[in-house]
Design brief:
Length: about 70
Amino acid sequence: MSSIAKRLGKKIKLARVEKDMSQSNLANEADIDSSHIGKIERGELNITVITLYRLAEALGCSPSVLLPE
Protein backbone atom coordinates (compact mmCIF):
# COMPACT_ATOMS: atom_id res chain seq x y z
CA MET A 1 0.00 0.00 0.00
CA SER A 2 1.10 3.59 -0.38
CA SER A 3 3.20 5.38 2.17
CA ILE A 4 0.36 7.89 2.58
CA ALA A 5 -1.99 5.13 3.71
CA LYS A 6 0.65 3.86 6.15
CA ARG A 7 1.28 7.32 7.60
CA LEU A 8 -2.47 7.95 7.90
CA GLY A 9 -2.85 4.62 9.67
CA LYS A 10 -0.11 5.49 12.14
CA LYS A 11 -1.78 8.80 12.97
CA ILE A 12 -5.14 7.10 13.48
CA LYS A 13 -3.54 4.49 15.75
CA LEU A 14 -1.71 7.18 17.73
CA ALA A 15 -4.96 9.12 18.25
CA ARG A 16 -6.77 5.92 19.29
CA VAL A 17 -4.06 4.95 21.79
CA GLU A 18 -4.00 8.50 23.23
CA LYS A 19 -7.76 8.18 23.81
CA ASP A 20 -7.19 4.77 25.45
CA MET A 21 -9.59 3.12 22.99
CA SER A 22 -9.43 -0.42 21.72
CA GLN A 23 -9.75 -1.11 18.00
CA SER A 24 -13.14 -2.65 18.71
CA ASN A 25 -14.37 0.44 20.57
CA LEU A 26 -13.20 2.70 17.76
CA ALA A 27 -14.94 0.51 15.20
CA ASN A 28 -18.19 0.64 17.17
CA GLU A 29 -18.02 4.41 17.67
CA ALA A 30 -17.21 5.04 13.99
CA ASP A 31 -19.71 2.44 12.71
CA ILE A 32 -16.97 0.60 10.83
CA ASP A 33 -16.42 -3.13 10.66
CA SER A 34 -13.98 -4.02 13.43
CA SER A 35 -11.82 -6.10 11.08
CA HIS A 36 -11.07 -2.95 9.08
CA ILE A 37 -9.51 -0.93 11.91
CA GLY A 38 -6.32 -3.01 12.04
CA LYS A 39 -6.00 -2.90 8.26
CA ILE A 40 -6.49 0.87 8.27
CA GLU A 41 -3.90 1.35 11.02
CA ARG A 42 -1.36 -0.80 9.13
CA GLY A 43 -2.01 1.12 5.90
CA GLU A 44 -3.38 -1.95 4.16
CA LEU A 45 -6.73 -0.39 3.34
CA ASN A 46 -7.53 2.83 1.53
CA ILE A 47 -10.33 4.69 3.24
CA THR A 48 -12.92 7.10 1.94
CA VAL A 49 -13.34 10.66 3.11
CA ILE A 50 -16.55 9.58 4.85
CA THR A 51 -14.63 6.95 6.81
CA LEU A 52 -11.99 9.53 7.72
CA TYR A 53 -14.71 11.81 9.11
CA ARG A 54 -16.32 8.94 11.03
CA LEU A 55 -12.99 8.02 12.59
CA ALA A 56 -12.24 11.64 13.48
CA GLU A 57 -15.65 12.07 15.10
CA ALA A 58 -15.21 8.86 17.09
CA LEU A 59 -11.78 10.05 18.21
CA GLY A 60 -13.05 13.53 19.10
CA CYS A 61 -10.79 15.37 16.70
CA SER A 62 -10.80 17.13 13.38
CA PRO A 63 -10.13 15.01 10.29
CA SER A 64 -7.17 17.26 9.52
CA VAL A 65 -5.47 16.05 12.72
CA LEU A 66 -5.41 12.54 11.30
CA LEU A 67 -3.98 13.48 7.91
CA PRO A 68 -0.26 12.94 7.43
CA GLU A 69 1.92 15.95 6.68
